[in-house]
Structures are given as structure tokens and as C-alpha cells.
Amino acid sequence: MNEEIGLGELGPKIDDLFNSQLLGGQIGGAMTSMDTDPVGQEGIGGSGGSFGNQSMARSNQLSLPSTDMDLPSVEKTGRITTLLLKKNPIYVRLSDGTEASFTYDEYKKIQGEPALGKNMTLVFQRRPEDASGQHSKVDQAIVRD
Q1: So what's the pLDDT on residue 89?
Q2: Is residue 128 left, alpha or beta, with left meaning phi > 0 and alpha meaning psi from -120 to 50?
Q3: In the 8-state DSSP scheme, what is residue 11?
Q4: Which residues of 102-138 are buried (b: 16+ CB within 10 A; e: fewer)?
Q5: How far apart are CA 43 and CA 46, in angstroms?
Q6: Full-prediction pTM beyond 0.90?
Q7: Which of 9, 89, 99, 120 is the most exposed place for a label (fewest CB within 10 A)?
Q8: Burial class of residue 95 in the structure, from the number of CB atoms within 10 Å of its CB (0-12 exposed, 13-18 middle, 19+ buried)
Q9: Where does the chain show beta strands of DSSP type E?
Q10: How many Cα neighbours within 13 Å face the side chain of 1?
Q11: β-pairing, 99-102 with 137-144?
Q12: DSSP β-bridge partners for residue 77
């Protein structure tokens, strides 16, 4: 390929020029990936088509993290079997084994009046598949009769 106007003789070197660091620096790093093909990039539109070597573009494919902002939650319901009001933090244990600790301010925000034998629903910020012993943030606590 011999271009006579403005480009000179690029021929097979056009791929090298397009994939070089020099070109990326010329445009201020605006090109983050050589793969502009939307195939394999879920939720991202491209300009339609790929430039350069297909196999090289696939190996440099952009991998984006999830931007899902939903906080996973788990809801546990059971009878209150243990209620330690004179401890700091206030301790509550449900019949299904769920344990929760509340500061005094958090305890005052519980909907309803906690008492032994009453049903309580706790909503945690936690992934449903997480079975670790780590503590979770209590989003909501509701006491039902």
C-alpha cells in the first residue's frame, strides 16, 4: 500500500503506528483500549469494528468493574430469645441463631418495643451467599407481636 498524499509509505507499518505508545501520548491518553468492538464488553457501545490485529485487540480487551450500586441485604426473622438491655452494646438473639448488637441510639430507632418472646425482623447489609462470621450493618429492625 503506497499512499502519496500526506501519509507517505505506511503499508504494513500502520498497525505498529496505531498500537504504539507514541500515538497514545499524542492524544493525551484518551485511548484506553485498542478494542472498540462492543462484542465481549457488556453494556458498552463501540464505534463498530476493530482496528489493527484482531487477536492482539482481544488480548488487550477492556475489563470494567461492576458499577452496581445496590447494597445486598438479608432479612432474618425469629422470636427474641435473649435480650440484654443492661449491657453496652445492647444484645439481642433471635430463635434462628441471629445475633445483633445495638448502641443506645440504634436501639431507640427499633420499630416497636423489643421484649422476650416477640417476633423481630432484622434487615442486614450482607450478600445472601455470605456465610462468614463477620458482623453486618443492621439497616432496619422491626418488632412484631
Answers
A1: 94
A2: alpha
A3: G
A4: beeeebeebeeebeeeeebbbbbebeeeeeeeeebeb
A5: 10
A6: no
A7: 9
A8: middle
A9: 73-84, 90-94, 99-102, 119-125, 137-144
A10: 9
A11: unpaired
A12: 121
Confidence at residue 24, expressed as pLDDT on a 0 to 100 scale: 57
Domain limits, the chain: 11-59, 73-144
* Antiparallel, parallel or unpaired: β 90-94 and 99-102: antiparallel
Amino acid (one-letter) located at 94: L
Grid cell locating 25: 501520548
Separation between Cα atoms, residue 113 and residue 92, nearest integer Å: 13
Q: What integer pLDDT is reported at residue 27 of this predicted model?
A: 52
55's enclosing H/E stretch is helix 54-59
Read off the pLDDT of residues 3-49 as tens digits, 9 standing for 90 and up: 455 556 666 676 776 677 666 555 554 544 444 445 444 444 444 44
Q: What residues does 20 pair with on adjacent strands?
A: none
CATH class of 73-144: mainly beta
| pLDDT tens per residue, range 68-119 | 677 788 999 999 999 999 999 999 999 999 999 999 999 999 999 999 999 9
DSSP 60: T
